[in-house]
Amino acid sequence: MDWCLNVSDSSLSCILSQCRNLEALDIGCCEEVTDTAFHHISNEEPGLSLKILKVSNCPKITVVGIGILLGKCSYLEYLDVRSCPHITKAGLDEAGLHLPDFCKVNFNGSINEPAVLL
């Protein structure tokens, strides 16, 4: 869904709720998506199966939204948050958010992306 400019919070929330076994999701440059898209999954069981999540260039997603996702994505291996002005390493640390030990986070493009991409 990279560069799908009309993706809304409600459509992404529906995808995450209905596609629990989804392993990779790229919503890069979906500029209208906010943390609200993730609020509905916070109360749902079971968790998400996401291993690769790319939210680069999503200026309305914050540490709050990432925190919700981290609470539901225990298998996350790669998180791309490049060009997300509200998501920084310091911000994640200040919020007390912990990524899975095996998860690589791309804050600025310096980490190689996984071999299998969307």
UniProtKB/TrEMBL annotation:
Transmembrane annotation, as ranges: none
Domain F-box/LRR-repeat protein 15-like leucin rich repeat: 7-93
Pfam families on file: DUF7885
InterPro entries according to UniProt: FBXL15_LRR, Leu-rich_rpt_Cys-con_subtyp, LRR_dom_sf
Identification of the protein by name: F-box/LRR-repeat protein 15-like leucin rich repeat domain-containing protein
Organism: Medicago truncatula
Lineage, opening ranks: Eukaryota, Viridiplantae, Streptophyta, Embryophyta, Tracheophyta
